[in-house]
Amino acid sequence: VIEMKQIFIVDYLGIHCGMHYYNDAFKKVLSNPLPNEKINILSNYPEDKATSFFLNFYSVNKLIGVIFLVYNYIKLYIKVLSNKKACFIYLTYGNSIDIPFLWIISKAPKHIIDIHEAIGQNVDANLRLKKWFKNIYSSKIKSVITHSQRTNNFLNEYDFQGLRLSVPHFKYCFKKTCNENQVEKEIQHSIAKDKINILFFGNINYNKGIDILIQTINALPQEQAEKLNIIIAGKDFDGTIHKIPLMHPQSFQVFLKHINDDELVFLYKNTDYVVLPYRKTSQSGILEMAFYFKKPIIASNIPYFNMMLSKFKSFGMLTDLDIPSFTNTFSKIIQRHTKYTDYYIDTEYSTYTNRQEITSFSNEFSKWIKK
User: Fold this and answer.
1) Alpha-carbon span 254 to 2, nearest angstrom
2) For 337-345, which contacts have Cβ atoms below 8 Å and span 24 or more sequence positions?
């Protein structure tokens, strides 16, 4: 009889960027083929009403944050050393703070790296950081989980020779209900019943194309712009949103803050479309959230979005990554907007919900962990 290993999903971002939704979905996928496994999430939020494993270094000032981060490194190192028979799944985002975490996880005999970014999109031109990642992936890391061709390209560049398991982003599984008492009044009032509501959600920065969205609305004629209600909700990461003036300010509702779980559900339930004018991405939790709520997406024609909408054509529309193309797409939406009659056809959504790739991944992971 093969002894079942304890599984630890290690994620330092957690509630800071909504990764708790992903972690829960991942745990559910693993619980399918491995019902007897003990699967625990080690993150910065409490699981099952226990205390959180990591301190949330994003919620404090920089000096305290550094102390918290060092504490987290030490705590994880002790956890790895004291659980030699366990399997550690580490979620990496390609930042410099991942380097010590990756080194620590590599000490676990059974480890696998779930790569959300092989190198952060804002630092992928940093040659020193690339060298560090290449060193650790080529010499320390034995197994990885990939979600995109962009990640595979970087792994090739890093001379990674280990096992690669590929899987799409997991389908979310949380309840689509919200406590409106936990939703700010301004957000409750942000939905315009007489307009087309379009949501831009998540981290707000240059790579997510917030400037493209603003310039697109700026380029629309007044009579078209006034039919739109653009809701921008999330944390401002690099100030790009402030660099482009709003020519039609009446068409925008902007909330530059952490959006709590109830506010997320409220916004996704009440919007008409979700816009993703991204310049690059390896995967997208925002896209998966739109799919989960069956909200059609307006996405830039970059490889990942192209791949997803090639498989699920009724889930939204692609547009080239320039202002005239986005403007043309928005004009068409205004002209023929209907309440989802052409979106999320049942056969495609059933295929999405029961994706064979995720079943294959579950089977491959189950075989791998038992070796």
Assistant:
1) 54
2) 337/196, 337/272, 339/272, 340/294, 340/296, 342/314, 343/294, 343/296, 343/314, 343/315, 343/316, 344/294, 344/296, 344/314, 344/315, 345/314
Neighbours of 236 (CB within 10 A): 16
pLDDT tens for residues 40-82? 999 999 987 678 999 999 989 999 999 999 999 999 999 999 9
**Angstrom distance (rounded) from CA 291 to CA 270:** 14
pTM listed for this prediction: 0.86
Phi, psi of 271 (to 5 degrees): -85, 165
CA-to-CA distance for 305 and 312, rounded, in angstroms? 10
Question: Is 95 in contact with 101 (CB distance < 8 Å)?
Answer: no
pLDDT tens by residue, 278-320: 998 878 889 999 999 999 999 999 999 999 999 999 999 999 9
Whether 270 and 339 have beta carbons less than 8 Å apart is answered as: no
Name the one residue in this structure whose structure tokens are 């650790």: 136
Buried b (16+ CB within 10 A) or exposed e, 100-136: bbbbbbbebebbbbbbbbbbbbeebeeeebbebbbeb
